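Translate structure to sequence.
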């Protein structure tokens, strides 16, 4: 059944205009709302079951839940971002960000420009509610109303969207950053309009470093440039926040260079894992074990995945390419993380390259001798590891950029760990 058929069926059942139902249905589906949930939301809006009548209720922000069908709310606009999305071949410009009142804050998406800006206190009527990442989000469409509030709404949240890189989280919209471009490269991808040139690389400030993608390359984005970048949105990329620039993003060169901390934030393993993922972090711990799949391995020549018995999960039987890798378990007493060393770092701890490893495996008639040699070198020793941390349902992985034996005083680290444990016991 096509979307038009679903709209006709709903409109007939609810006794309302089909075009209005179709617009609402398209808006919800476009923004990744499952079709059944979108239809239920429209039924609630028009009083057709699933949550009561169609009249919106007036609520404080903290009281809005995903079960609400539509609400009236008075709040202050914290951020306003603008970008274009494509649906069924049409480009649609949306405005998105966060609103807040004295009780809390909530994300919103506006499918038309109601003219409000960050800092405005507004009264919004008949905002539809959808669930996004387990939380409610306001959807403003042509059945919603927006008017300036009769009085200013005081909030405890920053207005305007300025943020350090460390503060950014996936889902943020309408953010502004002042950064230095640390790395940048131009790439050509298969975009929605065919071959598309984009920029990607790394941004830094005093708080952190993050990857970025500029989908509409700005001439000001050059390596070493210090810039103010306004109206970016944040996505998750390989488990960490990624800064995204659109055609609505403005880029301005700063008169003074942005300071960038050469060192990464240093965290305990548990704190790092609890962060949910960090692009640049340093941890220190003991290497407890070298996992299976380390040492001399083979990768698919098409996708670079590790293959087993000549079989790639994506490309079937392939002629594998030899490589070196280490997957080690690092423990600092608070938690563990899997540290992954690439070929260069593995060569450093192994003391040889791929050719040396293949020769050792041939002599022993066993590839495992390479991993065993690595185990003898690093297991039981303490290392300082810096890299990109990703966390998912399978665990935490730290792709190492540097892997050095720690020169920390063990007594000092023991005292720090005891202090943390004592604090946790007191809080418990």
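Result:
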């Amino acid at each position: 059944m096509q979307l038009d058929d679903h709209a006709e069926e709903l409109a007939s059942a609810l006794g309302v205009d089909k075009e209005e139902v179709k617009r609402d249905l398209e808006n919800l589906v476009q923004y990744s709302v499952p079709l059944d949930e979108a239809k239920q939301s429209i039924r609630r809006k028009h009083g057709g079951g699933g949550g009561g009548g169609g009249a919106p209720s007036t609520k404080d922000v903290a009281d809005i839940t995903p079960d609400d069908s539509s609400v009236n709310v008075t709040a202050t606009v914290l951020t306003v971002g603008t970008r274009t999305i494509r649906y069924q071949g049409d480009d649609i410009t949306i405005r998105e960000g966060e609103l807040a009142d004295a009780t809390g804050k909530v994300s919103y998406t506006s499918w038309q420009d109601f003219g409000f800006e960050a800092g405005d206190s507004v009264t919004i009527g008949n905002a539809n509610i959808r669930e996004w990442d387990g939380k409610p989000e306001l959807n403003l469409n042509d059945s919603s109303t927006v008017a300036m509030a009769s009085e200013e709404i005081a909030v405890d949240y920053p207005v305007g969207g300025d943020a350090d890189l460390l503060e950014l989280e996936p889902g943020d919209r309408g953010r502004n950053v002042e950064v230095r471009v640390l790395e940048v490269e131009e790439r050509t991808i298969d975009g929605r309009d065919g071959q598309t040139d984009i920029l990607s690389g790394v941004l830094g400030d005093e708080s952190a470093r993050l990857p970025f993608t500029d989908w509409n390359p700005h001439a000001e984005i050059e390596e070493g440039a210090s810039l103010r970048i306004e109206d970016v949105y944040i996505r998750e990329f390989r488990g960490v926040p990624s800064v995204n620039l659109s055609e609505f993003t403005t880029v301005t060169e700063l008169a003074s260079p942005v300071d960038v901390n050469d060192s990464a934030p240093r965290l305990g393993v548990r704190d790092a894992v609890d962060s949910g993922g960090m692009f640049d972090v340093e941890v220190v711990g003991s290497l407890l074990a070298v996992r299976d799949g380390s040492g001399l391995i083979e990768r698919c020549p098409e996708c670079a995945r590790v293959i087993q018995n000549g079989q790639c999960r994506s490309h079937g039987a392939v002629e594998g390419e030899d490589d070196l890798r280490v997957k080690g378990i690092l423990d600092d007493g608070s938690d563990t993380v899997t540290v992954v060393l690439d070929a260069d770092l593995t060569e450093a701890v192994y003391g040889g390259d791929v050719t040396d490893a293949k020769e050792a495996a041939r002599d022993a008639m066993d590839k495992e001798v390479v991993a065993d040699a690595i185990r003898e070198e690093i297991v039981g020793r303490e290392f300082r590891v810096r890299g990109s941390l990703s966390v998912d349902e399978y665990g935490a992985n730290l792709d190492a950029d540097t892997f050095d034996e720690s020169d920390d005083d063990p007594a000092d680290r023991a005292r720090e760990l005891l202090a943390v444990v004592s604090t946790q016991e007191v809080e418990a």
